[in-house]
Amino acid sequence: MTGNYKKDIIGLKKGMITIVSFAYYFRKPGYNYRRSYWNCICKCGNEVIFSRKHIFECKRLSCGCWPRLNAGVDSIRTPEECKKAKMDCILNMSHWEGECLIWDGYCDGKYPMTSYLNIKYVVGRLIWIFEKGSIPPKKYINHTCNCDKCINIKHLKLIDIGENRRGKKHKKKQRL
């Protein structure tokens, strides 16, 4: 690709979609900018076209096949079925790198985020709640592998505020 304002993003994976090729440019009448659109393929096999802006702002993470559980529990699904469907979605939005299960979806700062039943969660906390039950007050989820995007339950442990602060100081010393 040529041009100094855009990157070659072919092959990039965002959520459940993979960018395959450039599709076209579109310029709205009266606007100075043009938007690039890209051919994408979803994990389910559907071929779709999304704008680069929507892909990078994580507004389009699938073709629409990803179940929408954020509207609340509907009358068809039991809470256990909703939990299982959400876990399946989380696993579809991640990939393995060695022993770490890396989140490919939206991140708020450095932590993976998702919503479940209209509540925004850090993905690691939601997985902990699904697998091991509620998190006591003043307790934190720590990544033993030091990868903030890892959501492997085997790499998550429950710690208190003191351990969390000591861990942050230790990480800062390692960076220096």
Strand and helix map with partners:
Elements: E1 13-14, E2 17-26, E3 35-42, E4 47-51, H1 52-56, H2 79-92, E5 94-97, E6 100-103, E7 107-108, E8 111-116, E9 119-122, H3 123-132, E10 139-143, E11 156-160, H4 161-175
Antiparallel strand pairs: 1-2, 2-3, 3-4, 5-6, 7-8, 8-9, 10-11
Note the main attributes of this structure.
11 strands; 4 helices; alpha+beta; 25% helix; disordered N terminus; 3-stranded antiparallel beta sheet; 176 residues; 4-stranded antiparallel beta sheet
Summarize the structure.
The chain has helices at residues 52-56, 79-92, 123-132, 161-175, and strands at 13-14, 17-26, 35-42, 47-51, 94-97, 100-103, 107-108, 111-116, 119-122, 139-143, 156-160. It is of the alpha+beta class.
Description:
The protein is an alpha+beta fold and 176 residues long. It has 2 domains: 1-66, no CATH class; 79-175, no CATH class. Helix content is 25%, strand content 31%. It has helices at residues 52-56, 79-92, 123-132, 161-175, and strands at residues 13-14, 17-26, 35-42, 47-51, 94-97, 100-103, 107-108, 111-116, 119-122, 139-143, 156-160. The strands form 4 sheets. Strands 1-2-3-4 form a 4-stranded antiparallel beta sheet. A 3-stranded antiparallel beta sheet has the order 7-8-9. A hairpin with a 2-residue loop joins strand 7 (107-108) and strand 8. The protein is elongated. The two termini are 38 Å apart. Mean pLDDT is 77; it is low at 1-5, 68-76 and 172-176.
